[in-house]
Design the sequence.
């Protein structure tokens, strides 16, 4: 694995490439963000935004979501993968928000991960994006990029990737880094054909060097 110092140097390069990286899920408040992140599991942000454009007009509060049958909600999100489970989770989540939180989304990670359909990643996204609390959510892009660059070990699981990133990156950079690693993975270091030959990190990247047989200068 590369050192903390090298990690920061690489993140500085990514920072220059994607200075304006931010959450691409369209939302107006913490509740909409929570619904959007829940829907985004194994689904693209583009598709989620397409669905929530109409969904958020029809359903504005937790009470709205539980006022319809689960079948109707399923129908409204049918184009999204795992829509049946997601519809059930959304209604269960809304019941808890109403019963325990006055219809608001809680602000702590510990409370969020107890909600139906909300895992570690979703909780981290909600606290960091909605409430500005430092957190480093690890999605498929963050994990792939971190491993390719050698910031984390290949065999690390998601929890270990998050721990390593949090250890190597100053806390004040966590929120920004999360979005920048996603943009880097989504638009540059893509899964199938990463743009290694135009990558400013090629000389330092173990994956890029392996793919292109680069000799370290
Ligand atoms: Fe990704 Fe290739 Fe750049 Fe490495 S060199 S970070 S694999 S695009």
Sequence:
């Amino acid at each position: 694995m590369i050192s903390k110092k090298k990690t920061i140097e690489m993140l500085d390069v990514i920072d220059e490439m994607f200075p304006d990286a931010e959450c691409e899920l369209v939302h107006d408040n913490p509740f909409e963000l929570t619904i959007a992140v829940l829907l985004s599991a194994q689904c693209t942000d583009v598709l989620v935004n397409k669905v929530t454009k109409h969904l958020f007009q029809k359903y504005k509060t937790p009470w709205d979501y539980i006022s319809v049958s689960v079948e109707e909600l399923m129908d409204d999100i049918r184009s999204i993968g795992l829509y049946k489970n997601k519809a059930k989770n959304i209604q269960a989540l809304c019941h808890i928000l109403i019963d325990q939180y006055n219809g608001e989304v809680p602000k702590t990670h510990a409370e969020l991960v107890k909600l139906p359909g909300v895992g570690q990643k979703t909780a981290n996204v909600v606290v960091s994006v909605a409430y500005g609390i430092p957190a480093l959510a690890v999605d498929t892009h963050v994990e792939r990029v971190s491993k390719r660059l050698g910031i984390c070990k290949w065999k690390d699981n998601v929890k270990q990737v998050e721990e390593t990133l949090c250890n190597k990156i100053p806390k004040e950079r966590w929120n920004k880094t999360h979005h920048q690693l996603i943009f880097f993975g989504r638009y540059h270091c893509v899964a199938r054909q990463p743009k290694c030959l135009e990558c400013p990190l090629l000389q330092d990247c173990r994956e890029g060097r392996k793919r292109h047989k680069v000799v370290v200068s």
User: Anything to note?
Assistant: DSSP finds twelve helices and no strands in the chain.
